Amino acid sequence: MPGLTIGDTIPDLEVETTHGKIKLHQFCADTWTILFSHPGDFTPVCTTELGKMAQYSKEFYQRGVLLLGLSCDDLKSHNEWIKDIEAYTPGAKVNYPIIADSSREIIKQLNMVDPDEKDSTGNLPSRALHIVGPDKKIKLSFLYPATTGRNMDEVLRVIESLQKASKFKVATPANWKQGDPVVIAPDVTNEQAKEMFHQGFDTVDLPSKKEYLRFTKRFGVHREVHYIHTMACRFENKHYESPTDLAYDMLP
Hints:
This protein is an alpha+beta fold. 35% of the residues lie in helices and 23% in strands. The protein has 8 helices and 13 strands. Helix 3 links the parallel strand 4 (65-71) and strand 5 (98-100). Thiol-specific peroxidase that catalyzes the reduction of hydrogen peroxide and organic hydroperoxides to water and alcohols, respectively. Seems to contribute to the inhibition of germination during stress. This is Peroxiredoxin.
């Protein structure tokens, strides 16, 4: 189905949420946002997913990432369902907004329609997730079937990868996780790499003798640790009445 995909700017929709009416571009501000849809309220897989997202919310906020859920149920349903989610996930609070899309027009504009899952009203939202960058463009999209819940460790991993690549001329290899070596971008020459990565890098000796596979581990580490520590201090023991309050607190 044609629609919103990687590289596209998200539409500046005005939406009703459990935290009030918001406009997407204002909500996203100049930071990272995870926009995720779920097929329906009071369903088993979705309940576990939103509970997990609540558990991980501090991890995302510490990295400057906002959360925004979406389904085709109304606000009353969302608010009642949140009680179940929090009961299932002791200690976790659903402090992120959830969009109500009873007309199912928003899921069409955000390319979050499941072509196979339907009810009497029509197609349900897919189990989709868009990671939106500070420039309001989609950097990554996941699309899962209704039967498969998302892995929040993987979502956190790709956030770390995307943020690292946005700050430095690097990419993350297969099965990479935070703390592992990264590869230097292929458009960086060896001379440039020596200037950029003062701690050095290792070039893999390949049969082709092409020096394109270069690993480095230590680069900008103190800057990243300082950033995460600063974000942790700013969000520690704070309660936000609205996503806008959170977004403004995250601005420099």
